[in-house]
What does this fold into?
Amino acid sequence: MQSLRPYIAFVFGLILLSTTACSEQPVKRGGSTAKQVKESLLKANRYLVKQEKEEIENYISRHGWEMKETGSGLRFAIIKRGKGEKAAEGKTAVLLYTTRLISGDLIYSSEENGMKIFTIGRGGVESGLEEAVMLMKQGDRARIIIPSHLAFGLLGDDKKIPPRSTLIYEIELTELK
It folds into this structure.
């Protein structure tokens, strides 16, 4: 529960910001202006992003993985090269996959839930997953780490993925249509 406190405070701050953001009037409790509240929230968000990045780096180090990082913060490693065509926007991707939390808990898998099928560039999946698939060719297997801002963000998926969760995917791009 203690590890959730920063997240709860952050969400509460966002609610407070949304109720005061349109006004420069002082907030009644504490006398802070909306600008000060916004600056505090940005500072808290930077802290949480930095904390998540450190957690990801420690996870990679503990597992001895070599991964590349994209500009968005996605980490990826191609662990088996395929011989098919390169993924492209507008193509339909068919994936074998497992999804785990950074704690190691298995959340979803193609074995349990069926193949993940989506049209690249049309949304409907985590933006980090879509970004990773764009780096692949048909037949590639990859390991990816998706920070929360590229996954389900502040809310989670309302099923198995909690708010602000880093996701670890093992994927294989089995088909491009």
In short: Residues 34-63 form the longest helix (30 residues). Residues 58 and 64 are 10 Å apart (CA to CA). Strands lie at 68-69, 75-80, 92-101, 106-109, 116-119, 141-146, 167-176. The helical segments are 5-20, 34-63, 110-113, 127-133.
